[in-house]
Design brief:
By secondary structure, the chain is α+β, with helices and mostly antiparallel strands. It has a 5-stranded mixed sheet. Strand 4 and strand 5 form a beta hairpin. The protein has one domain: 3-Layer(aba) Sandwich (Glutaredoxin). The mean pLDDT is 96. The radius of gyration is 16 Å and the shape is globular. The chain has 7 helices and 5 strands.
Length: 176
């Protein structure tokens, strides 16, 4: 299946916006598989540098991960203060501690305005935006996390270890 909706300026993106390789993850901050994918993607970002951009969309699997929505809300609330990616990293690096008091501590560590963050983390508009990301993932064929797309095409093979890097190198040798 292909990605719907396509990547836009509304997405959270790291890297060169004109990079020839676009890696998009539909992820859940509490998902152990997403936690395992996190350092693999970080390593790939270092390896590919300006040749890759990375996009993360929320796909909280709330029936199995009770703190997933709170963590997604925290990332989006941090984004309103220009700290999306630092919060994203903090959440994955502290994946076993995603309860509210811990998340407020992460916000403090990131020097966020805690009053604003505390209000934004409960904002219904942010929750609706996360739900739209979730439904976009469903329309794109995501049924588990991490749901990975490379240049708009769903990755249906393995991603662990060096598999993701090998897949990209084999599929796009012109960019290596």
């Amino acid at each position: 299946m292909s990605l719907r909706p396509l990547v836009s300026k509304e997405d959270h993106m790291q890297g060169n916006p004109d990079a020839p390789i676009e890696l998009l993850e539909y992820g859940d901050y509490q998902c152990p598989f997403c936690g395992r994918a996190y350092p693999i993607i970080k390593k790939l970002q270092l390896e590919l540098g300006d040749r890759m951009k990375f996009i993360f969309r929320n796909f909280p699997l709330t029936t199995v991960h009770p703190q997933a929505m709170l963590a997604a809300m925290a990332s989006e609330a941090a984004a309103l203060q220009g700290k999306y990616w630092p919060m994203h990293d903090m959440l994955f690096e502290n994946q076993r501690r995603l309860f509210k008091s811990a998340i407020m501590g992460y916000a403090e560590d990131l020097s966020l305005d805690l009053d604003k963050f505390g209000t934004d983390i409960k904002d219904e508009e942010i929750q609706k935006a996360i739900e739209l990301q979730f439904y976009g993932g469903m329309r794109s064929g995501v049924n588990a996390t991490p749901g990975l797309f490379i240049n708009g095409e769903k990755l249906n093979s393995g991603w662990e270890g060096d598999e993701l890097s090998k897949y990209i190198r084999d599929k796009y040798p012109q960019f290596m």
